[in-house]
Design a protein that fits this description.
212 residues, mainly beta, two-stranded antiparallel sheet
Length: 212
């Protein structure tokens, strides 16, 4: 019989660094969520707002973890097991913040902070001590600035962008999309030596300098 490989959570730094909180039962499923944040700008004469990318959101990992000490742990207080995870939301005295953690199960390794944790107790001994619980846990991906810069080689110190003019494009519309402000079209005009902003040519490449 193949040996079960338990999922576990461990703190990356702080008081509990390196200590594994193993789950009693591996999750039946989990969900991963990715997202981006966009800003919208409303322009006169358009039926819908225009959107521009602001930044990416951290990935989220959500799952239910099942704990049962009644059947195989002598009906001990299940909170002794769930507390190993819930304590990772407390402020660690060494780092003055809840610690970043790592969730590991099989081929999945997810560095994160625990954003939310809900505990539901569903079975009790006669004296009221809980022996069965379900934890709903949401992890929010954690990356240091150095890690993000190292994995994104397309970034540079020059924030200048370029855009190819499409048919019916106007400088105020481009300014709204790229800068969230249609009134800064003059910045684009000056950067590209455009004397008449009405005479944009489809296919023309224009430079979009960073605003200072």
């Amino acid at each position: 019989m193949e040996q079960r490989e338990p999922a576990y959570i461990e703190a990356l730094i702080g008081t509990y660094e390196g200590i594994r909180a193993e789950v009693i039962f591996n999750p039946a499923e989990y969900s991963l969520e990715k997202g981006n944040q966009f800003a919208s700008a409303t322009l006169p004469g358009l039926s819908n707002p225009v959107f521009s990318f602001v930044n990416g959101n951290a990935d989220s990992l959500t799952m239910d973890l099942f704990f049962d000490t009644y059947t195989n742990m002598g009906a001990s207080d299940v909170r002794f097991e769930t507390e190993k995870i819930s304590r990772l939301l407390d402020i660690d005295p060494k780092i003055h913040a809840p610690p970043p953690v790592r969730f590991v199960w099989g081929g999945l390794t997810f560095n994160a902070v625990i954003e939310r944790l809900g505990q539901r107790f569903t079975m009790f001994r006669e004296d009221g001590v809980p022996v069965r619980a379900t934890l709903n846990v949401t992890f929010k991906e954690y990356k240091t600035i150095q890690e993000q810069l190292a994995e994104d080689p397309n970034q540079s110190s020059d924030w200048t962008k370029y855009r190819v003019v499409a048919e019916q494009d106007r400088l105020c519309l481009i300014a709204a999309i790229e800068y969230d402000d249609p009134t800064v079209w003059r910045v684009i005009a000056e950067a590209n030596e455009i004397d008449n902003p009405r005479l944009l040519q489809p296919g023309q490449e224009i430079r979009l300098p960073p605003l200072r």
